[in-house]
Design a protein that fits this description.
The chain is of the alpha/beta class and 439 residues long. 40% of the residues lie in helices and 19% in strands. Strand 7 (162-166), helix 5 (174-189) and strand 8 form a beta-alpha-beta unit. Helix 6 packs across helix 7 (242-255). The chain is globular and about 70 Å long. The structure holds adenosine-5'-diphosphate and magnesium ion.
Length: 439
Amino acid sequence: MQTVTDQTLLDLSDVCQHYDKGRDTPLVVLDKVDLRLRRGEIVGLLGRSGSGKSTLLRIAAGLIRPSSGRVQCNGRPITGPVSEVAMVFQSFALFPWLTVLENVELGLEALGIEPAARHKRSLAAIQLIGLRGFESAYPRELSGGMRQRVGFARALVVHPQILLMDEPFSALDVLTAETLRTDLLDLWGEGQLPIKSILMVTHNIEEAVLMCDRILIFSSNPGRVIGEITVSLPQPRSRQDPSFRRLVDDIYTRMTARSDVRSNTRNELFPGTGIGTVLPQISTNLLSGFIEALASAPYAGRADLPALAEALQMPSDELLPIAETLQLLRFAELAEGDITLSERGQRFAVGDPQVRQQLFREHLISYVALAAHIHRVLDDRPSHVAPALRFQEELQDYMSAKFADTTLKAVIGWARYGNLFDYDEQTEMFALEPVPSAR
Ligand code: ADP
Ligand code: MG
């Protein structure tokens, strides 16, 4: 483990980010975020999808200028990309037409480093991260884990002080992710990495507890830091260690705390109040399976989330979105790390397919504003159809095109199950009546 010092490397204070889409009130993505990264520490940023974590990292990397607030690296303001800060992306972001070596060298080219030194440093980074022998391979020839190693090599080769990682393991399978985490922690612990601090975004609680010295809990709508947890367990950490489990439990509790704890922010207990809410793409199969599991023994309608995650062998970044969707739909309630089926959730569990469909439909209309909105628009139109574009544009007043897309996909899946409306992928039209060709 490295020694954490008091020297602040990265300093974000009072950072706000809003998107002004010509509505009365701009969309506030980040609200007065303060974050200090000290030399020698790994800090984790834990929050839901759509809460503004990537936005914050991009601001820290100098890739976007915040609407207001101050961003400093080593006491100097960041106004654009700087060589002290490098980033690893969830999607690897490699150039497919370049070899491993060329992908890694690219960052050094931008720094104006001459070819011989570029070559030498790139080979060293490739070797360090465990890719020796793959210098002339193309990304398509590599597994996901190896591609992400290239992502790491490319970030490390510039010898940054600060490494920013945006959910770097979430696109990898469980075993590959664990291997890469361990390798990275080993290199870090042995002091082999050129970096001094790491700031990583994750929505996996266990990953945060495994890797971080400090964990910041991030709220959504708007994104702000609502809690901080210091993890003082020595490295290497074991997931089986009771104090590890206690910390995971504690974070689950904090992340599902009732709204009065996270006071004065709107929409937290039931985040799906507005049509602009980012929805997670969770299948109705998964939702109903989950309700059934919760209703049956040993849970009988109520479960401790960390225990449930353990029993179902599910990491928190898979479990929490399902639990939160059930909460949004009012089939369950989350509080203090527990999930409890509501009376209607119990009815769903024992209901036949018709009963389930009817309940789902009613809850979609009542609690998922976007579903109700699309339904109303379709109902109002004599043709009972509407192009996807209409809703995509509307959602983009509240969120980026990417989130608008997944949000619409989520609501389409749910609406089909509840027989509320349908969508034709071919014609890109929503319709009130089931579309024969749509499935
Ligand atoms: P996270 O990484 O936590 O999942 P992001 O930082 O990617 O979240 O996004 C936070 C919110 O900001 C989302 O609601 C997203 O749709 C919105 N957002 C991001 N970029 C833009 C943009 N250019 N225009 C409008 N909204 C945006
Ligand atoms: Mg993100």
